[in-house]
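dumping this here so i dont lose it
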């Protein structure tokens, strides 16, 4: 074997030709001429190598090997695809193609394993809501005026209703009717009613700008408050403080414990037109007022204005018609529901701490009154043009649970009974109608309701004679 030294090639032939370079690692390493043998690595000269030719030769050998018989890997892949029913042209994972269908009659043995932890499906159902009135009373001379508040139901189970110049009390337990008072002047009329929290005192607003306080047990007037210059159309109690809203656009706040000249403790002038809605929160910390100027105002217990919402200047989402219907939520102290008149038709829900509108729904008709269900997250609304109906809404989903019809005129006023189940409505058709849209309270299901398991309606039947008397007219006078 001949040896070559670095830097010398055989006949000057490049790598990859018919001649090859033979290397001998056993020869002496060129160096300093010492006789001692020394093994070392060989470093070829790159300028004498043809890399393109070498790469071509290696690639050609690999291709020749691939053209032979299929490898074991290819055979395995084909067998696996056949067992899984996968075609060569199909994709296992694809966005636009459906998964291959299982053979006919195939059952997955792991189906029970996949389904054993699934929660049972619960069908969404609503409770049954009676949609017909249980009793109708005739109410002649009930004024058809959207801005008045002529009906209220006390904790002593007495219904007060204003008919023309007089106020009548209807005892829901006995069915007895009694006239409480009458304004003396011809042409005057009762314009607002509101029971105190104890159910013993009734505040009466009149068209001649007076506020009277009557003791319902003694049937005697105990106070008369003067300070407005036009009719009193809205009233609301907060303990010993009575707030009155008037057509003169002011809200007067009276402390009934003080003498006449000191009774008016605050006068609010936030509205520019008649105040037709007025309601203290259940906790007594906030006073909501609505007016014919489309304004919703919130005052605190010290009568400081907290928020004022007005369309279109103050907020795009405010009411675009008179705000009469007001209702504070019984389970969330800062949640207020408000209803707008004919040009608005919306029920809106507000966080009164921030004045943020939480949600709204277009009811399709004038909103006259609102009442919360004290036993569930539901809201009952009464309406005017054009259906004159009552609607029960789930909150906060605002799904309509039921629609109650019967009135032939707009349903102007609404009040809830002391048991929290019965509701009475007064309409422009001069009738009072009794409904039970809120169902039985939890205690009533255990036989321990406040009125003895529906005594209110049962007594009303007895007063009318028999159960067959439901739906018949009977004059409240």
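and the seq i came up w/
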């Amino acid at each position: 074997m001949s040896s070559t030294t670095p830097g010398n090639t055989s006949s000057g032939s490049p790598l990859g030709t018919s001649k090859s370079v033979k290397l001998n690692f056993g020869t002496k390493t060129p160096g300093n001429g010492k006789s001692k043998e020394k093994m070392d690595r060989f470093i070829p000269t790159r300028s004498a190598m043809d890399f393109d030719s070498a790469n071509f030769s290696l690639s050609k050998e690999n291709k020749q090997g691939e053209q032979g018989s299929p490898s074991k890997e290819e055979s395995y892949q084909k067998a696996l695809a056949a067992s899984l029913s996968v075609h060569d042209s199909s994709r296992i994972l694809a966005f636009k193609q459906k998964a291959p269908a299982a053979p006919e009659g195939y059952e997955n043995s792991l189906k029970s394993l996949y389904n054993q932890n699934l929660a049972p499906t619960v069908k969404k159902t609503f409770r049954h809501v009676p949609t017909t009135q249980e009793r109708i009373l005739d109410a002649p001379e009930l004024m058809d005026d959207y801005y008045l508040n002529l009906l209220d139901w006390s904790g002593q189970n007495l219904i007060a209703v204003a008919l023309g110049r007089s106020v009548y009390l209807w005892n829901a337990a006995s069915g007895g009717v009694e006239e409480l008072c009458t304004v003396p002047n011809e042409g005057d009329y009762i314009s607002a009613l509101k029971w105190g929290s104890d159910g013993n005192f009734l505040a009466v607003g009149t068209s001649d700008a007076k506020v009277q306080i009557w003791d319902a047990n003694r049937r005697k007037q105990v106070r008369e408050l003067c300070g407005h210059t036009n009719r009193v159309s809205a009233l609301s109690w907060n303990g010993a403080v009575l707030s009155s809203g008037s057509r003169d656009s002011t809200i007067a706040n009276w402390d009934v414990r003080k003498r006449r000249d000191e009774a008016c403790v605050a006068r609010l002038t936030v509205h520019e037109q008649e105040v037709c809605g007025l309601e203290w929160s259940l906790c007594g910390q906030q006073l909501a007022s609505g007016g014919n100027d489309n304004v919703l105002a919130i005052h605190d217990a010290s009568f400081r204005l907290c928020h004022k919402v007005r369309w279109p200047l103050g907020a795009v989402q405010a009411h675009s018609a008179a705000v009469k219907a007001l209702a504070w939520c019984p389970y969330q102290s800062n949640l207020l529901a408000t209803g707008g008149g004919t040009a608005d038709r919306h029920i809106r829900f507000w966080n009164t701490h921030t004045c943020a509108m939480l949600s709204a729904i277009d009811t399709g008709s004038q909103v006259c009154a609102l009442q919360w269900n004290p036993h569930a997250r539901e809201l009952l609304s009464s309406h005017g043009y054009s259906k004159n109906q009552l609607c029960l809404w789930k909150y906060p989903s605002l799904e309509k649970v039921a629609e109650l019809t019967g009135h032939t005129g707009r349903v102007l006023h609404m009040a809830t009974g002391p048991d929290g189940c019965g509701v009475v409505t007064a309409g422009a058709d001069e009738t009072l109608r009794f409904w039970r849209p809120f169902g039985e309270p939890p205690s009533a299901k255990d036989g321990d309701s406040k009125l003895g398991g529906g005594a209110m309606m049962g007594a009303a039947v007895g007063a009318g004679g028999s159960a067959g008397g439901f739906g018949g007219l009977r004059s409240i006078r």
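The radius of gyration is 45 Å.
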